[in-house]
Amino acid sequence: MSTLAHDDHHDHKPTGLKRWFFSTNHKDIGSLYLIFALTMFFVGGAMAMIIRAELFQPGLQFVDPQFYNSMVTVHALIMIFGAVMPAGVGLANWMIPLMIGAPDMALPRMNNMSFWILPFAFALLLSTLFMEGGGPAGGWTMYPPLVLQTGNAFPFLIFAIHFLGVSSIMGAINIIATVFNMRAPGMTLMKMPLFVWTWVITSFLLIAALPVLAGGVTMLLTDKYFGTSFFDAAGGGDPVLFQHIFWFFGHPEVYILALPAFGIVSQVIPAFSRKPLFGYASMVYATASIAILSFFVWAHHMFTVGLPIKGELFFMYATMLIAVPTGVKVFNWVATMWKGAMTFETPMLFSIAFVILFTIGGFSGLMLGITPVDFQYHDTYFVVAHFHYVLLTGAIFALMSAAYYWLPKWTGYMYDERLGKIHFWLSLISSNVLFFPQHFLGLAGMPRRIPDYNIQFADFNAISSIGGFAYGITQLLFVYIVIKCALGGKKAKPRVWEGAKGLEWTVPSPAPFHTFETPPKLTKEMLEH
Amino acid sequence: MNNDDISKKNRKLAFLLAIFAISFYLAFVLMHSF
Questions:
Q1: Which residue of A lies nearest to B16 if distances are taken between CA atoms?
Q2: CB–CB of B24 and A173 under 8 A?
Q3: Taking Cα atoms as reference points, which of A79, A77, A406 lies closest to residue A267?
């Protein structure tokens, strides 16, 4: 494939700190997001190591229960808002303009602001761990009245969440404006790569869901400091109202984390199967269906609070419905691989593992969605196992797949394939050793969010902790692979992967600082993804 | 369409989406206030 010559012109870029602090370049801001997400992945991961160390044996070992609860709470907030979401936005920043033939994001200065809010928000959140009374410890769901017992950390938590929401909404607005207004001529909506589609739909989810979370936490703030009683029964309020508000945001949030992962896998599987994606249009409609349905299932997180039976039935059936478009997607990924000339480089391995393990997480989700059954599983380790299959072996495996897939395009060098495969196999084995036994713990009745447990749960917890430490150490290998790749190695071609189709593979590797300053002329081959 | 027109279009769309998000936020808080 020919490289577009015009991309090599005017490749000047600012230097020093100014380049990063004042950047309006989508590639630089994408890199900032990705580096920030990786850093937060290790901060949140360190908290997970503390949790697993404490749970290695029954009894209290290393930390006091209050600090343990803080670790559980902040680990979740960091991983969701600090690692998975910024990693997805980083990929969107880097790849969407390249994929649709745009010179940059639609609103570059707002893009800079979206990113630079994040370090301040997380400084606020993490500073609470050093305050008197400790960090927030009521769980990431922040249910009142428990969360209102938080000490000085409380306003910091609330403002951090507001900032994160503002950052994400600005990012979402930018993506929508970029995709709707900046596509190269000929790049119609139904010709866009699926990664772009999943991000457009995710952006609408962000804009519709995050204001609801912001509203909920503002009400928490006024309940604590300004004498309101939104969630205080003594003043005529209702604590269950918060749960409704939180999960009206919280369930779409699950798809905010998962849909970009679907998009990544939909790019990687066709490339390594050397076939176009099976059922492109049905993939787009399935993604949109999942997004719409995600606003009608929130109460399946709160079956045990005492909902009317008709409400429980409605939310149970609505939850079952989501399995239909999700099934369409899994079918299409498998059908794409069917009779393809498959090879198994690291991105493909992570994507195949995603399809299998995300589906396991989906099945345990179906189990939890069955109202009468949920009464046994609710707030047990079964739930912890379920959402870690969806988010770790799901979303994070897809993000790893994306990192390996596009790393040569970002750095200009091939990563070490042998080390990549070692990273994959160690991650696959350790994450299953970590989370699979938690299903058994949950079914046997071990509650979540506790630092100590009955002796009968000891063996599975020990196994789970060993898997946890192994997974944590394995991720250091990923950092080594990325740094090694950034510093040098075999030069990457413009089209890094033989079967990869799309506009991003027409520019040189590494992608020049400025690309598509004049809109590219699209050929059939560029749209064959 | 020249660059200025596209910028104008971008800002207009961003403004509309931001207004939507802010009013959704305010509506949610106010709805529960009365």
A1: A173
A2: no
A3: A406
Burial degree of A302 (CB within 10 A; 0-12, 13-18, 19+): buried
- Chain A nearest-CA distance from B24, in A, is 6
Q: Encoding tokens for residue A97? A: 């303009």
Tell me which amino acid residue A293 is.
Answer: L
User: What is the spatial distance between Cα B27 and Cα A450, in angstroms, rounded to a whole number?
Assistant: 37
Among residues A88, A146, A89, A137, the alpha carbon closest in space to that of A114 is found at A89
Q: To which residue do tokens 């929508």 refer?
A: A176
A106 touches chain B (CB under 8 A): yes
* pTM: predicted TM-score of the whole model, two decimal places: 0.95
Three-class DSSP category at A380: strand
Tokens 């902040």 locate to A74
Question: C-alpha angle A156/A158/A161, rounded to 5°?
Answer: 105
- Which DSSP category does A526 fall into? G
Residues of B in contact with A175 (CB under 8 A): none
* Mean pLDDT confidence for A417-436: 98
| φ, ψ at A447 (rounded to 5°) | -75, 155
Cβ contact A157:A125 at 8 Å: yes
Structure-token match 């990431």, residue found: A140
Query: Is A89 within 8 Å of A257 (Cβ atoms)?
Result: no
The answer to whether residue A2 scores a pLDDT higher than 50 is no
